[in-house]
Design goal:
This protein is an alpha+beta fold and 389 residues long. Helix content is 37%, strand content 23%. α8 crosses α9. The N and C termini lie far apart (53 Å).
Length: 389
């Protein structure tokens, strides 16, 4: 709690539904769907996020003397490092090999969601936004001290939030993702016209092959999404998890809950077999204020280039049609560059309780940031667009 205003009180909550959706969303704002109360509630009410799965909610609110919520942050007591997409497994091993206990730790994040967005969320007109953000950070650090956990991690904050936390002494980490920018295109052909001839031909061939396999893709939103679509999509999601030898963080209840409470923010690409009418693939996107966020993909069997069509090109078509500026197609994937998705920085910040370990992590991050920046410069040279010089 800052010395400048002793009327502010921090509260920590063991469930998102302890906080009213109206108050939470007044702080979160409407632009990032993952920060909304409905999304976090869907995760918790479905059981995907719970102490039993290693995600113990500890959400933070800042209230004034009238008990009005002025700011909030999504916070979890984590028993592992799964589902975060900013990897600290090596830190955990090093700390435990030195005799420390890395878990539990505190994680300020949107579970299973590598999407940049506000983490230190402030209600419009509530007062000094930076002071309230600093109050949230100071409160989370103090909670980490009281719980005697090893660390606090804030993943995928905005650049402005990152800079504020670094100014408060948290460690900075850079990452990268690949995003597509809608440069005011009137249609997909306008985007293709901006590419080099070779890249343009490659994408056209990919789309032709994807669309000639007897599968029709439709983008569904709102009431057009039926329970059968979520049943099928959950099956596709599990199929992809199995193929990648990965872990299924989300369950069927989550997808149905998402459809019940946030269907107007969902763009669900579903593929139907032309001969049988059977649903055979799907790609889940969420609609933001100025971006379309690609999240999950799956198919009942292998189709050539259908992943690129459903996840990348259909998303670009949708963004152009809706006038959205960005498509964020998830973590990783240098193959996205040739399809117009260019590298952009992502950020995280870290507070380490043990000062010796803090210095070791700080030294590692200094070197890693230089490498990431150099890598970003090299990757930028692979952009498929026509040379403008």
């Amino acid at each position: 709690m800052p010395d400048s205003d002793d009327s502010l009180v921090l509260h920590f909550h063991t469930g998102i539904d302890e906080i009213s959706a109206e108050d939470w969303d007044a702080c979160a704002g409407p632009d990032n769907p993952f920060c909304l109360h409905a999304f976090l509630s869907a995760l918790e009410s479905s059981g995907a996020v719970a102490p039993a799965t290693g995600w113990g909610p500890r959400h933070v609110t800042v209230r004034d003397g009238r008990e009005r919520i002025l700011a909030c942050a999504p916070l979890y007591l984590k028993g592992h490092s799964y589902g975060e997409y900013v990897f600290d497994w090596a830190w955990a091993r090093a700390y435990e090999q030195a005799g420390g206990k890395y878990y539990p730790k505190l994680q300020c994040a949107i579970p299973f969601t590598p999407v940049t967005g506000p983490r230190l969320m402030v209600r419009d007109g509530a007062g000094d936004p930076d002071m309230l953000r600093r109050t949230l950070v100071a409160g989370m650090v103090e909670m980490a001290r009281r719980l005697k956990v090893s660390s606090l991690h804030v993943t995928f904050p905005t650049k402005e939030e990152h800079d504020l936390m670094v100014d408060m002494g948290l460690l900075s980490r850079l990452g990268r993702q690949y995003h597509w920018e809608n440069a005011g295109y009137g249609g997909f052909d306008d985007f293709l016209a901006a590419l080099s001839s070779r890249k343009r031909k490659t994408i056209r061939k990919e789309r032709e092959k994807a669309q000639s396999q007897g599968v029709t893709l439709k983008v569904l939103t709102g009431d057009a999404i039926e329970p059968r679509h979520w049943e099928a999509f959950h099956h596709f999601y599990l199929s992809t998890i199995d193929k990648k030898w990965s872990q299924a963080y989300l369950n069927k209840a989550f997808f149905h809950r998402l459809g019940a409470t946030m269907a107007d923010r969902v763009a669900l690409v579903m593929g139907e077999d032309d001969a049988t009418g059977e649903l055979v693939c799907g790609a889940l996107n969420l609609i933001g204020g100025d971006a379309l966020y690609g999240r999950n993909w799956g198919a009942s069997e292998d189709y050539k280039f259908l992943h690129f069509e459903a996840c990348y090109y259909q998303a670009m078509d949708f963004a152009i049609d809706r006038g959205l500026r960005w498509v964020e197609a998830g973590a990783q994937g240098e193959h996205k560059i040739s399809r117009g998705y260019l590298p952009r920085f992502t950020y995280s910040t870290h507070w380490i309780a043990d000062q010796g370990f803090h210095r070791a992590v700080e030294d590692f991050l200094d070197k890693e940031r230089d490498a990431v920046a150099e890598d970003m410069e090299m990757l930028g040279e692979l952009a498929p667009f026509k040379c403008t010089e």
